[in-house]
Amino acid sequence: MLPNSVFYGNPEDWLNATTKPHASDDAANKIPPYSTINGGIASGKLSVNTPLDNSICYAGIADDSPIAQLYCIDGVDYNNPLFDYSGIINFLWGYVDTTTQLTTGRQINLNDLSDTNETDKYFLVPQSQSDYPAGNVHRYFTPYVSIVPRNFVLLIYIECDTEQFNDRRASSLDDYINNTFNFSPQTHPNITSILVAPVGSNTLDNYRSFMAINNNGGIALAYNAPYDLPQLSGIFDYWANAGNVKTTARIWGAPNIYYYANYYQYVKGKGGTFNTDNGKLTYYKPYGNGEWILRCVASLGLFFAVKRTTAYTGALDDANMYCGVIDDNGLCHGDYTRGTDNRNQPQYTWTTTNDSTYDPTAPIDPNTYSNTTAFNFIGGLSSMLKRYVLDARAVESLGGDLFKIGDDIVTGAGNYVDYDNIILNNFLTNNPINAIVSLKKYPVKTIPHTGSRHPLKLGKVQIATTGFDMPYSSFMHLFKPIKVFPRFGNSFLDYAPYTTLDLYIPFCGTIQLDPNDVMGHTLDVQLLIDYTTGNCDAFVSCDNLVIETASGIIAIDIPVTGTESATVDSQLSHAILSSKSATAARKLSPITGLMKTAGAGVAGARLAGPAGAIGGAGIGLISAEQSAFSNKLSSTMADYDLQHTQAPLKMISAASPVGGWAIDFNCRLIISYPSSDVITDTRPPSFDIGALENFGKVNGYACLQTGKVSTFSGFTVGKIVLDGVPCTEEERADITRQFASGVFL
Amino acid sequence: MTAQFYINTSPTDTLDKNITAISPIITVVPYEITSITRPVLILDYNSDYIDANYIRITWDNGMSYHYYCTVATNNGGQLIVTCERDPLMSFKDAIKNCDITVTRNAGIGAPTIYPDSKLPVYPNKKNITSIVMPETSSSFTGDGDTCYLLTCIGGEPTE
């Protein structure tokens, strides 16, 4: 979409994007000047609070973006009543001069009462020069509209100076910080301003060069835009030109992010230290790592770079090319992408900024959306226990060492009388085997460990068995992502309920996925294993957004202690008792029912059921008031508990790690899709509809499309609006009825 | 008032019908009181017109319409042509310019995202297949070459 010619006039009159003769008259490569927009009454005037179109309102700056947190214009209180922001709209703008540089500093008269056209208040610019055609009231401040993003890269630029402020220089930020140009933080420690310069070209996909734009640029912002406008007034750098350094390579003050910093570590910004400098308000902000600068520029929603070479010749997906992220509302929050990730941004495919869907007048969705899920990896947890990674041979020798351990230390002490005390002192228990908390077997070739192999230490005693130390950390196992490809040409047959998707995840079982969510998207599974507990958690992502989780147990517990055996015995005992109690209650229930019917009002004796064995879940109280049904159910449950409380199988099969080991260790997407005699081949990527071709000729395919009748062909069913057909009412009804049942076009 | 006889081979629910002329443009006379939507014509007998099932009539006001027709003879050896206007063919150009919301269309060429109950598939008869997502590091193993983790009291606690 090209700019609105009503506002911008004939594209042939637009300015070239560079000083060089433009090779193409393609309007998309030219800059329609704002001067044309308001070139006199004939072109109309702007309406307050009404944006023109997307050519200059391609993005909004959200109130949480860093650029919205900046403070005021230097030397002028942002509450100055001269600043009437009514009608100011969001666009890049700059002074366009294709012939000469300015020779003197120029100050903008913010209170130009001669502006009888009342345009001054809209854009806060002067209109007193005579070297432009009469009626061009904004001849110095021409906005960039219809920006071609791929040929309009913002280069982060600085102005620096010596300690004495006597050698003002300009350089790209990257050159300055890394001392790869002529000026460095050492020689010119004062950053006087940080700004961006557009680097552009008027030929598509050609090298970019600085644009023929020199002074007095700016960003104008919508009065009703969703950010704190006064904080943005710093971009109006009206007095920055008072110096004597001017190039054709920058937009003064646009977007002049920070100004008059004292040493490069400190540049002005909200939240910094307040100071005064020659009577001007100056704010200092730590430079830090410069990330905030990137976020400021990203708030403009265009491509940008910190390196000159990238800005000049880098592709839009160059590793050093950045792109401001525009959210679903068309707002920028300071986020950015880099390198190949830029391809996912809408600006990557924009022909011009007119392609933006941003509408400043649209209601703002207050939510922030994210298409990715971040993971936190837990590591370095403190523990009073010791973990060793062992191989099978070490496990076998461990048993022998346990038998020898007591004899060794008692014999070494030479005192059989104090055997118990010696064991207790070394193991905090009377049985060395109870010093073992757990022994788990994992289906992995190696468990991440640290250090070299060394003898184990049980309690205070070192034994012969060797192993590796293991930190308390979680580890992520990855599976190769797949794209869920529609087998039926992305038709309704590829979605629920016709197609169903189940994802088998090793150790976690099978989960059902909604094909409506994942069809056509990339499916990814990450398995987080906690080697200390033996638990694992699977995270199923659809295009990097976690949509499902599942849990399981990957480790097989190896029973080694007397305590574990006692636990199993206890569970068996409880299960038997539960079964008996439940059975008794079931037999009693008819009697208790009679009692209730008789209105005895006596609850009767309560039989307390012991807690269930499995998973610590209690069977609960079994009372005389309970129905026969529930008693029968409880009885069944107790019997089930009893049958399933078997050592050591119960311990292993609680989450079926053995079963998990029995199936392959890969994830597997199980696709169930409908069968048809007429669809002869559903294998992607081709979708052979076979006999369906004839079906379609006779019946058509279900759809929901609108348009002129002439745009459709073949058998067509629909609701027609017979406007302009000079038939009788009877015939009109007949035609409508025929289209409702189908017409061959 | 003129007319031309045709043979129509298209179904009635066809907008742009396939018709073949079997007569030149001839002058006809309406039979008694007639209407523009269901006219009855009378003309001299001509065996070439007996098989006509379609006719295009151009009225004296210059308007021209297409009609389904039935040709019969009377006792006087004349042809009586009973007509009924075909609004689809007669107003096809105007109809083509009308807006329509289409719910089924053959030109799409394949099933779409919209559920189609007419499509001959068996929703309850399913095929099944699977796609493997291999573990990328190949670190899982089920044989004896597995690892054990011992957690115990003692030693210098690991961070």
Q: Which descriptors would you attach to this protein?
A:
heterodimer; A: 745 residues; alpha+beta; five-stranded antiparallel beta sheet; 33 strands; 20% helix; disordered N terminus; B: 159 residues; mainly beta; eight-stranded antiparallel beta sheet; 11 strands; 6% helix; rod-shaped
Describe the structure.
The complex is a heterodimer of chains A (745) and B (159). With 745 residues, chain A is α+β, with helices and mostly antiparallel strands. Helix content of chain A is 20%, strand content 24%. In chain A, a hairpin with a 2-residue loop joins strand 27 (535-542) and strand 28 (545-553). The longest helix of chain A has 36 residues, at 562-597. Chain B has 159 residues and is mainly β. Helix content of chain B is 6%, strand content 43%. The radius of gyration of chain B is 37 Å and the shape is rod-shaped. At the A-B interface, strand 18, helix 7, strand 19, strand 20 and strand 21 of A face helix 1, helix 2, strand 9, strand 10 and strand 11 of B.
Summarize the topology.
The complex is a heterodimer of chains A (745) and B (159).
Chain A: H1 5-8, E1 15-16, E2 30-31, H2 34-37, E3 60-61, E4 91-94, H3 120-123, E5 142-144, E6 152-161, E7 169-172, H4 173-177, E8 190-200, E9 209-210, E10 218-220, E11 258-259, E12 266-267, E13 273-277, E14 280-286, H5 291-298, E15 303-305, H6 308-313, E16 322-326, E17 331-338, E18 385-390, H7 392-413, H8 419-427, E19 436-442, E20 450-458, E21 461-469, E22 474-478, E23 482-483, E24 500-505, E25 509-513, H9 515-518, E26 522-530, E27 535-542, E28 545-553, E29 556-557, H10 562-597, H11 628-644, H12 649-653, H13 657-662, E30 667-676, H14 692-699, E31 701-708, E32 715-721, H15 729-741, E33 743-744
Helix pairs in contact in A: 10-11
Chain B: E1 2-8, E2 19-21, E3 26-27, E4 29-30, E5 40-44, E6 54-58, E7 64-73, E8 78-85, H1 87-90, H2 92-96, E9 99-105, E10 121-133, E11 147-153
Antiparallel strand pairs in B: 1-2, 1-3, 1-6, 4-5, 5-8, 6-7, 7-8
